[in-house]
Design the sequence.
């Protein structure tokens, strides 16, 4: 029996073969978690805004018509135009056809055409205000940047969810391993209690030995109750990301990393390059998109205080009919100028936007500094956690050896139960510390991968 007692603690809970790996958990979160699916729907909604903004540059057809139903004049007139906006210089290109019939008063004589009508081509350009940017181009650019911002926000949401999900899984695994160690030790204590009871009844041991072991049994029962409570809480947290409690199967040789399919191991080579990955970080992409949106609005605000100077050019040709058409086409060049007065409100808006832009740029610098700080701290923490894990493994080995020797002494009758119980407790504490240290390494590597927003890049 004593060999069995020592054997359970000396085996120190061989790592289980897990029915759920980290890549499987990540895939499940991406495919089914409602928080991430809601983020993807928000991204799709913003993508529709981009399409709507692009539609402002779609060609359009305009129709104008006039018919006099009574009176001295009986003129009729119809004009159709295809107008296509162009983005440079806020321009518009138009192609039209106009035809009229009847008699028009002199103030409407511009409607007159020959029998087969008139074709025309027009071009309109902005030379000052709206030349480089206008409300339509600003809306399109802002919508595209907004899509980039929301896409980055979607990546941030996914990264946070995966971090929370994996953390919940690791916490559940750690709680389950601790509970198994405590449960096995409790079973050994109950087994020993039966033997000690027989020996006390036969007079081989004093009654105090039984009382001592019963006290130890109660203490370990309380430990198991606490372990059951913690495991139940961790299981509920995990169900938020994985609906069923994962099953476990015994495994003697595989390491916990192998069983988890752990994709976030930090090597020295990887640690040397992590700072180079900051540029693509979704938090930085998100705030960069905000900065670009604000810069676009600033350019639009500057545009609003400029005077209008629009150039319009139109050529038309009467294509005739029963009478000879005009031999030359008609060409018109127009230049429209407008100087706004009282631009205090527009300039105030410009100053407000400029201040917001400076604020966002400073915020971006703060995010970069915070990320660099967290990355450096993460790298150092991983190294320290690995050292602590190595030390805890050595301490566990020493505790195992002491327990083995004390068990042998107890079997030979040269040690007492009190010392054996102390050695068992020390071995238990050493095993629990080793479990904590092993999971601390995984948590630190997970933290660094989460800081780099690389949790979904499996």
Sequence:
């Amino acid at each position: 029996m004593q060999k069995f007692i020592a054997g359970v603690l000396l085996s120190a809970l061989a790592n289980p073969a897990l029915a759920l790996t980290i890549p499987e958990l990540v895939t499940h979160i991406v495919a089914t978690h409602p928080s991430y699916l809601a983020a993807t729907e928000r991204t799709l909604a913003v993508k529709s805004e981009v399409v709507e903004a692009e539609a402002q540059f779609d060609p359009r057809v305009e129709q104008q018509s006039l018919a006099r139903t009574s009176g001295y004049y009986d003129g009729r007139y119809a004009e159709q135009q295809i107008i296509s906006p162009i983005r440079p210089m806020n321009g518009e290109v138009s192609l039209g056809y106009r035809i009229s019939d009847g008699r028009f008063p002199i103030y409407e004589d511009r409607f007159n055409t020959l029998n087969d009508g008139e074709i025309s081509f027009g071009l309109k350009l902005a030379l000052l205000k709206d030349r480089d940017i206008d409300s339509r181009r600003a809306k399109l650019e802002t919508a595209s940047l907004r899509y980039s911002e929301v896409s980055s926000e979607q990546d941030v949401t996914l990264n946070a969810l995966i971090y929370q999900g994996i953390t919940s899984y690791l916490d559940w695994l750690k709680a389950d391993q601790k509970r198994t160690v405590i449960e096995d030790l409790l079973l050994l204590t109950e087994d020993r209690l039966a033997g000690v009871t027989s020996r006390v009844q036969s007079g081989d041991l004093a009654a105090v030995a039984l009382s001592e072991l019963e006290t130890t049994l109660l203490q370990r029962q309380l430990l198991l109750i606490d372990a059951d409570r913690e495991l139940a809480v961790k299981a509920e947290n995990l169900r938020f990301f994985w609906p069923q409690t994962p099953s476990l199967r015994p495994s003697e040789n595989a390491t916990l990393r192998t069983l988890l399919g752990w994709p976030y191991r930090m090597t020295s080579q990887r640690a040397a390059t992590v700072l180079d990955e900051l540029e693509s970080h979704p938090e930085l992409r998100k705030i960069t998109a905000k900065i670009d949106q604000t810069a676009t609005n600033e350019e639009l605000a500057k545009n609003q205080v400029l005077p209008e100077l629009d150039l319009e050019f139109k050529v038309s040709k009467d294509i005739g009919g029963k009478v000879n058409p005009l031999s030359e086409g008609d060409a018109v060049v127009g230049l429209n100028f407008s100087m706004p007065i009282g631009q205090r409100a527009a300039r105030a808006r410009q100053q407000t936007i400029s201040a917001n832009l400076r604020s966002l740029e400073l915020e971006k610098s703060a995010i970069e500094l915070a990320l660099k700080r967290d990355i450096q701290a993460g790298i150092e923490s991983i190294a320290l956690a690995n050292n602590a894990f190595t030390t805890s493994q050595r301490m566990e080995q020493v505790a195992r050896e002491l327990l083995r020797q004390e068990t042998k002494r107890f079997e030979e009758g040269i040690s007492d139960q009190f010392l054996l119980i102390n050695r068992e407790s020390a071995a238990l504490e050493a095993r629990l510390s080793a479990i904590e240290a092993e999971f601390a390494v995984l948590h630190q590597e997970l933290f660094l991968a989460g800081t780099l927003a690389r949790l979904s890049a499996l």
Notes: The first strand starts at residue 16 and ends at 18. The radius of gyration is 40 Å. Residues 1-14 have pLDDT under 50 and may be disordered. The chain has ten helices and eight strands.
